[in-house]
User: Fold Bifunctional glutamine synthetase adenylyltransferase/adenylyl-removing enzyme from Lysobacter niastensis.
Amino acid sequence: MNHPGEPAVLPPSLEPLVPRAFSRLRASLGEQAGQLDAPSVAERVWQVAMASDLAIDTLVRQPALLPKLLADDGAAPFDLPALTALNRTDWPALLRRYRAAESTRLIWRDVLGLDGVDDTLAGSTRLAERCLQAALAALEAEFVQRHGVVRDREGREQRLVVFGLGKLGGEELNFSSDVDLVYTYEHDGESDGDRPLAAETYFARLGQQLAKLLDEMTADGFCHRVDLRLRPYGNAGRVAWSFAAMEQYFQHEGRDWERYAWQKARPVAGDGEAGERFLELLRPFVYRRYLDYGALDGLRAMKAAISAEVARKELADDIKRGPGGIREIEFLVQALQLIRGGREPELRGRRLLPALQALVEAHHVGEEAGSQLAGAYRFLRALENRLQMLRDAQTHALPESVDDRARIAIALGYAGWEALRGALDVQRALVTAEFEALLAPRRRATDADELTVYWRALPESGDSTMLAAAGFEEATAADGLLRDLARSPGVRGLSDAARARLDRVLPALLYGAAQSSEPMLALRRLLALLHNVLRRSAYLALLDEQPAALARLVEVVSRSALLAERLAAYPLLLDELLDVRVAGPLPGREALVAACTSVAGEDGDAEATLQALNEVRQALSFRIAMAVRDGRQPAGDSAQQLAWLADGVVMRVLALAEEEVAAAHGRVPGARFAVLGYGSLGGEELGFGSDLDLVFLYDARDGDSAHSDGARPLEAARWFARLAQKIVALLGAVTAAGRLFDVDVRLRPDGAKGLLVSNLASYTDYQRNRAWTWEHQALVRARGVAGDASLCAEFERVRAQTLGASRDPAALNGDVVSMRRRMRAELDRSDAAAFDLKQGDGGLVDLEFLLQATVLRAAAAHPALLVPRNTPGLIEAAREAGQLDAATAKSLHEAHALLLARGLDCTLDRRQRRVACDDAVDAARAAIRSATRAQGLDFGEG
Assistant:
């Protein structure tokens, strides 16, 4: 870090420093000392001597290093010495000299500005890893000779796994840091040598010798300080742990600080593949599946303990633990990762700066704040490295010596200590502001104070007039509900910490409900949700820590019965209230489908996959619902997105069903299968809670004589029937996140009397020769949603031939009118007070029938009518084909948009799709009636 400024003034006490360094180097270099006279060499050595006594000491002890550094400025790491049985006694010296040489190379490049701080941190990490791996490999070979190889019960070889935690795990090791290690192994067992040892003893001894080889102080110093205290139970715990024992510990006794520690864990030596398997097992402990604002409590506790230590030991000038120091940046980034990393895998990185950038890109940290924090982090880490490079001391404290202060400042390019200290103060103030904002106490509206007094007095006392004053007209009823809640076992059984959270959250919820348009309705919905989250501390923590989420919750539940029900039934959706994507643009078809098709349960478990798929569907449909409720996009876009989401669900369920049927019966060679979507799914106008109209199609290369190739073969027809049944069952299976979709298969050939699955030939014959006109109408909106692409293309060909056939217009109109009148008589729920948006006179189904009749009548002459499936597309295609004039098409677009939006509003509020007529609804109905009659379709009573 070279800081432009006034020329540095060297204090008189430092004037002998560099000449003394040169004198020592000349003496060690002997005949090669002349190279120090070159101005370019002298300048570089002067800078290094000013910054580091360690570097000069190492160059004096190892004279061969300086010529190597001068040759390429230390661009390439030095070669690691071989540790063999023949040089066993030299291992400590070889490792220590290598570490000193490599450290000097890092100092040389850092001080001369050849490497940035990121490079130096990475170089320090690689150095520690190389020493660890070389030392462990040498010791392992020795142990194998003495005790054999550890094997588990199945005879599989077991090796030590060395996890690096802290900055070693994060690949950001500082220059003179210790290394935080935890020793583990995958399975228990015993070594197979002449002197066998149990796995725990074997690996504990191996780990202890590894630590000694690296850590023990000798005449050559140390290689790396080793800290084993981050293992379970610290120094009181066993040295090496099996994966099973570790997992048991974290399940039952893991603490908040250990989540932070293991967040950065990485296998750094030994069996790396086994280590990665363990970290995958540990992931649910580190990263929760929900937004985990409870992590802030752990962070507050750790920060309080550190602050007490800083005050007790007068560590205000400690740039790691003091105010605005490195640890505050680390905690800030790690806390945000822990809060959101369970739901956003891209935030789970071990390295701080990439993790900070990921938080910025995900909009959880502002761009300016992210840039400032990254700059502060690099500043502090560069200064930390220079403090340690001076004499290889593990220090984070600003020096007290005037000379040391001057050396640090001058080596970093500042005119003197005051200039450096001023720059440091600016950076620390910035960090403190950001960190304190993260941990700021929760702020509640002062208006809720009286409600707090009221709630805390329940159930024994409490004055309901406070509820009336707050805005509850039915104060007595509200008081009864709240007393019941206070008496409930769920509230009485809360821990002190959870009760404290509830006591902060509930008055704020009451205040918010009182301010809503329907306070009692909002209160009942909020209490239903609270009953479900009382035992889930993470959700109380979210509402406690994030007043914005709490306010959003009140707003949502007071305006949408559907969203209130879903939040109460599936509290995981509370996370969506804070997801920045909720207020942003909605995903397109590709992203929605990918979100579903990429879902996989643990170890490929079908039940877990369904659960995860349901959670994805719930979250995405919730996001779409929020866009409708907030009026952020047209209703047609939301209906289309819901259909695309269903496409993705069906694709994933098809793959899951195929795996299960194939596992039992093998596959039918050369056969193809497709899922067709009819109705609102095919027309890409799905509603909230809509079922799926599905038709299943297959084609076997050898016809129905084909059989599957499994141990229990089935003929093709039965195999695909089994597959279709499995799809319907999986879509309707109840999981903890609800069921995916109800399925209606009555639109298949011959309806409920027909086979569940049709082969391509019979389907084609049915559509051409036996289908009713209403079935051809249904075909207008049908499309392939999942399965074999070539079979979907075959379906498109059959559909085009069927719909493009010439028809008698009068007979067609008669069939369409007759069917519509029958439907209306059976299904229209309109009355004098309300209009049925779907089935009523001039409603959405009238519009669908109009467009379907247009396609069936005119597609032979205008094939472009066959392309669209959704209503807006069909209206446009009819206009372009001359079947509708521009004015009529415009009025139909407006009518469709209005009625669809009113329908979605009804479903969001759990109302039947019936509305009181107003001018807008009357105009929409009139436009649809006028257009149908103009086409010779009178859907009236007849």
In short: Confidence is low (pLDDT under 50) at residues 1-6. DSSP finds 39 helices and 15 strands in the chain. The first helix runs from residue 17 to 29.
